[in-house]
């Protein structure tokens, strides 16, 4: 019953006199009709001869059933419940013959399809079972946004619960159930279920726009300004006791879930199990109220045993992260090369730059992510205008270079990513790479042989060095590092 749509054949076999007419139908709709048939050698009707001595001929029609419609070639007929087919044999001399065939099909779909529980990889659902006279079992269909994930047959009319396994964490699945007898009946209403992003009772997580978000994620104010666009914090495997959203800068004044004002622009909704508290803007976000918020579940933030997760709600555009990438741990590779990645999120109009000290390494103005895409960032998420900007850095021990730009520097390298919001509220992030400011002193030969050299030097303080790289060259080449 998991193969869908269902396909089968109707076979009507006649025997006897060679002259006749024959048809097959469902209700008043003819699926096949042949007149003036002669089996005496003319064979002008498309039956299959089974026995020439008795003029035994089989006629076949192919049927497709999609749950609501019977189709055969270009002919279709909507039907509900049992399917009653007729084969009629027309004898020109009288005594016409009729056979009726009934295929059992549930007339109604199971009702009350409901989520019972879920984990990161499973969903358990239940439904109201049909009477045993109306169903032999059920077929549960699970789809994602791109494909059918699984179709499961549940035998027995009284069985009304199933656990669906092998799912992916943090993904939305659409589920329907059908009853079956000889054929499948109509589908139930569809329910959508989002699997947990984390294991039960261990970690909290954030959900927004049917996606999982980690602790410390950023959310643009204009994208969380409706109850249907809320940020949800979830603690799987627990039931909500109280729970709170609290602005980190003002921990003694938690969000009032039921009222909003200039000093409290948010509202929130809750779900008892699993413990869920959703936050959304009920009015514009003042500058004084943007920034970090923490969600506490399943109890208030004053409870030291409660779980906590953080989210940043901001105006305009914001720097989500500023990081180093592709820096090799092998310090013998020289010169050293790495990347700086600065990721912005939020409003589509901005300018951005990266620099070391007062030297700009990259600068882009009048950037628009609304289709113009005139700045060379890499789009990570079009829904939130999340764009990553990357520059390549080369360090030769004295000079930082990026393309044609270079800057001599001693000691730690301090980089800055700046984000220019035309409406104000500019942003900046700094990132420091630890670099020894001085070389080890007193490099001295200790002893040597024909094939070895032992040297020593004055070690730097532990705060100034993690280790050392010794380079050995001859008059023609680097021998070892």
From TrEMBL:
Keywords (A to Z) from UniProt: Repeat
SMART domains attached to this UniProt entry: FN3
Pfam family, one: fn3
Record InterPro entries: ECM_Regulatory_Proteins, FN3_dom, FN3_sf, Ig-like_fold
Domain Fibronectin type-III: 109-200
Coiled-coil ranges per UniProt: none
Stated name of the protein: Fibronectin type-III domain-containing protein
Species per Swiss-Prot/TrEMBL record: Amphimedon queenslandica
């Amino acid at each position: 019953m998991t193969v869908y749509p269902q396909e089968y054949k109707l076979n009507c076999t006649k025997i006897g006199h060679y002259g006749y007419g024959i048809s097959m139908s469902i209700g008043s709709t003819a699926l096949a009709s042949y007149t003036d048939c002669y089996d005496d050698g003319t064979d002008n009707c498309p039956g299959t001869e089974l026995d020439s001595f008795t003029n035994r001929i089989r006629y076949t029609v192919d049927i497709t059933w999609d749950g609501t419609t019977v189709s055969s070639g270009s002919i279709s007929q909507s039907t509900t419940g049992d399917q009653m087919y007729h084969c009629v044999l027309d004898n020109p001399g009288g005594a016409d013959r009729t056979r009726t065939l009934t295929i059992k099909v549930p007339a109604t779909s199971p009702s009350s399809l409901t989520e019972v529980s879920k984990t990161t990889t499973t969903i358990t659902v239940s439904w109201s079972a049909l009477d045993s006279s109306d169903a032999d079992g059920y077929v549960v269909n699970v789809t994602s946004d791109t494909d059918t994930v699984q179709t499961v047959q549940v035998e027995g009319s009284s069985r009304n619960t199933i656990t669906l396994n092998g799912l992916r964490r943090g993904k939305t699945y659409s589920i329907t159930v059908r009853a079956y007898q000889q054929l499948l009946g109509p589908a139930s209403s569809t329910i959508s279920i989002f699997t947990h992003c984390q294991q039960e009772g261990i970690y909290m997580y954030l959900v927004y726009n049917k996606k999982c978000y980690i602790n410390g994620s950023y959310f643009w104010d204009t994208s969380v300004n409706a109850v249907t666009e809320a940020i949800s914090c979830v603690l799987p495997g627990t039931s909500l006791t109280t729970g709170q959203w609290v602005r980190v800068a003002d921990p003694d004044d938690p969000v009032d879930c039921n009222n909003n004002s200039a000093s409290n622009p948010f509202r929130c909704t809750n779900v008892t199990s699993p413990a869920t508290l959703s936050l959304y803007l009920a009015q514009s976000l003042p500058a004084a109220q943007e920034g970090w918020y923490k969600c506490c579940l399943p109890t208030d933030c004053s409870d030291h045993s409660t779980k906590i997760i953080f989210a940043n709600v901001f105006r305009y555009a914001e720097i989500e992260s500023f990081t180093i990438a592709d820096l090799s741990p092998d310090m013998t590779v020289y010169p050293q090369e790495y990347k700086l990645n600065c990721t912005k999120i939020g409003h589509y109009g901005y300018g951005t730059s990266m620099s070391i000290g007062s030297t700009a390494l990259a600068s882009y103005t009048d950037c628009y992510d609304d289709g113009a895409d005139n700045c060379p960032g890499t789009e990570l998420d079009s829904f939130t205008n999340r764009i990553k900007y990357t520059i390549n850095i080369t360090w030769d021990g004295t000079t930082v270079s990026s393309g044609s730009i270079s800057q001599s520097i001693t000691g730690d390298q301090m980089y800055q990513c700046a984000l220019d919001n035309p409406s104000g509220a500019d942003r900046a992030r700094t990132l420091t790479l630890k670099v020894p400011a001085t070389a080890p002193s007193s490099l001295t030969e200790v002893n040597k042989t024909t094939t070895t050299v032992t040297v020593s030097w004055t070690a730097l303080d532990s705060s100034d060095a993690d280790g050392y790289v010794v380079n050995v060259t001859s008059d023609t080449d680097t021998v070892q590092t």
